[in-house]
Amino acid sequence: RVTLVGNVLPIPESEVPEARKLYLQRYANSKYWVDFEDFSFYRMDVVDVYSVGGFGVMGWVCASEYDRSQPDPLADSMAEIIQHMNADHQDAFLLLAREFARIESQEATMTAVDRLGFHVRVKTQDGTRGARIAFLRE
User: For position 49, which CATH number holds?
Assistant: First the structure.
């Protein structure tokens, strides 16, 4: 989770067609209202970033680092990957949870994936908990 701090301004008219195209690619149902007079596109000039990673890991990120960052290459495919893995590879998650997270479980489900690894929700005899399993290489 991150909190972005910055200034939000309307994008220049010359950039509206490209913004509209990208927006409709992502939110196709918006075609019904994207051209309404009160619909506008804005851009945030990020000044500060505060990251909350969980488990007490949090802090400010330099805006320049944020500017240089790239979206995770799996971001657009994450939902399909998770659906496929949970449908076809449940048995592998039990083994991976045991070998890499040291958790004996009766059930394991992938909940998130990125280029560095994935999160699983595992059900053990003591209850349900989460675990992160890193890929061996990026």
Answer: 2.30.110.10
